[in-house]
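Weekly structure sync, notes
Attendees: PL (lead), two postdocs, one rotation student
Agenda item 3: pending single-chain targets
PL asked that the sequence for the first pending target be pasted directly into the notes so everyone works from the same version. It is reproduced below exactly as submitted, 319 residues in total.
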Amino acid sequence: MTAPPTFVDVAAARKFVAQYLAPTPLVHCWSLSQQLGCDYYAKCENLQPVGAFKVRGGINLVGQLDAESRERGIISASTGNHGQSLAFAGQLFGVRVVIYGPEQNSNPVKVAAMRALGAEVRLYGRDFDEAREEVERVGRSEGLRYVHSANEPLLIAGVGTMGLEIFDALPAVDAVIVPVGGGSGACGNALVARHINPDVQIIGVQAAGAPACYRAWRERRVSQEAPMETRHEGLATRVAFELTTRMMWDLVDRFELVSDEEIDAALGLLAREAKLVAEGAGAAALAAVLKIKDELEGKKVVGILSGGNVPAERLAALL
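Predicted structure, written out during the meeting:
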């Protein structure tokens, strides 16, 4: 297994990534705090250049590829945000990027964004995992450097820079709520929290219709496949991944599962009460806080608003 990143790697990533990305705001959501009974803060990764936190990891990884890998180009699978992050970084560093996404139920906003950033987007299969399996075959045959969406230490370290910004802005944070698709966001934030203040609670959130990572975490078994029946593509993974799952065993305190309907309600609340645009994965943290608000009463809580790439018609319908 690939060695996991450390806090030292996150600190190094911060110096590198800061050359290309400004810190994102940590916004105290006053109205939501009144409703929740805690001090609720949103870490606004929806304000990244590609509208999602994964760009941190993309820049950290692509920017540090060796000359041979840069020349060959990279290939990966994504439902959109990971692919955008690699495409953005590929444009920055002059690296060819090929992204496979699911043919069925892909987010057209994200597909168009990846192409606009210069990535070659190929649609294949019924879900993310079928696209990923095709990438692993095609990458070898075409000689491209395969970038896994989670099992990459440089990706996780880059994402962890978000956690450093949280502690800079709110040293007294009590809990960080992180949506989990493949787990890089949970691992990156938890690495930082465990180093700076081990008492901070790290809570992962998955869609109830796609609980693979939760089951792997609960049963401490990586080879875990679960149903994948969520419409929120940022959370739509069918299998757990080796590196992030093993890290979450040690770093994540608990998981909460939320329904698509609970995510939709949180998405609408963020727009109406906090004036923040979120996609489904981006609203999952708030959905979990709404579910366990009695346990968080009086605490300082950070929800990772991991992305804002929601199709306009979906947001309009929810509002």
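Discussion points:
- The mean pLDDT is 94.
- Residues 82 and 149 are 7 Å apart (CA to CA).
Action: rotation student to compare against the earlier draft before next sync.
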